[in-house]
Amino acid sequence: xxxxxxxxxxxxxxxxxxxxxxxxxxxxxxxxxxxxxxxxxxxxxxxxxxxxxxxxxxxxxxxxxxxxxxxxxxxxxxxxxxxxxxxxxxxxxxxxxxxxxxxxxxxxxxxxxxxxxxxxxxxxxxxxxxxxxxxxxxxxxxxxxxxxxxxxxxxxxxxxxxxxxxxxxxxxxxxxxxxxxxxxxxxxxxxxxxxxxxxxxxxxxxxxxxxxxxxxxxxxxxxxxxxxxxxxxxxxxxxxxxxxxxxxxxxxxxxxxxxxxxxxxxxxxxxxxxxxxxxxxxxxxxxxxxxxxxxxxxxxxxxxxxxxxxxxxxxxxxxxxxxxxxxxxxxxxxxxxxxxxxxx
Length: 344
Ligand code: JHZ
Ligand code: SAH
Hints:
The chain is globular. By secondary structure, it is an alpha/beta fold. The protein is built from 13 helices and 13 strands. The two termini are 35 Å apart. The strands form two sheets. The chain has a seven-stranded mixed β-sheet with strand order 3-2-1-4-5-7-6. The structure holds ligand JHZ and S-adenosyl-L-homocysteine. The site of S-adenosyl-L-homocysteine has 20 residues, from loops.
């Protein structure tokens, strides 16, 4: 899955670039930053986060197994180790670079099946006062917003505060702060440290309690989610059938990983969605997994002037609506599918 032809380049989204800059500045600013401090980032992709450290001469190391995206980061003079992180690799990193002060990761932990080995590796890399801070799509948001498209092959886990707490307890680490994020449609930033080394922020108690109240860890809540997802699917299918019945042209906007779940689970193929447009050169000329809908570039989308665009990158709606103002005003309509199908 993660190799020299990995098709996701983090820096495609301008808003995500801003998000990572803010995060880096928060770490650097909050702590009167000593430039000799060492920051490791897991899954650094094309350098969207470590760019900010390199620009300020901060000692960093990205760990990124997908060579094509890692090469983009290396070309910008970021320090990157092209490999899969593991507890075994952690020994090598500590031998060669020493222990780190910060271990950062975004949208990566949820991709790694052998997660206890990863937690162990992180614990080995951190010095005694070291901080782990990572963010991933949050189960609480997925349940509430019925964004079931977060469940796809690359995403092995969908974390909650409870699951993260229990996981890291196994390596003697504890949650010290929880901060919800709007990225990827609702994420949580989990900050952890070795047990007893830092004060536990009250956000930890707040979100753990809220998860209990909202049933985030209850089986009954999962069955309700199942029903919500099934209803959401029926509404989307009905809408597409009605629009096709009126001879409307419908396309997909952004060939996201998430769209694979929508298309296959809802059984939507080229008979409804003529093509999907996307900005990633590596994806153009290929087909969507399973349903084989052609992927086209943005020029093609603008030349075809479709009546409806089903927004698969709904999490980037703000920046997409900004650049597609002409489409929205003069050409067509957007279809959103979560929590249920609706035409904007
Ligand atoms: P986006 C990927 O998921 C894969 P995806 C991965 N598994 C993950 O967890 C998250 O990212 C972090 C296109 N696009 O960010 C480019 C446009 O066409 O929602 C990409 O193909 N126009 C690691 O794929 C895709 O969307 C635009 O204006 O669900 C990225 O979609 C923008 C902003 C994106 O992630
Ligand atoms: N942090 C970036 C990239 C997320 S994409 C962002 O938020 O946009 C997920 C990345 O994790 C991919 O680049 C993939 O190659 C990397 N990855 C997958 N398994 C990994 C592992 N075991 N160790 C380190 N990186 C890994």
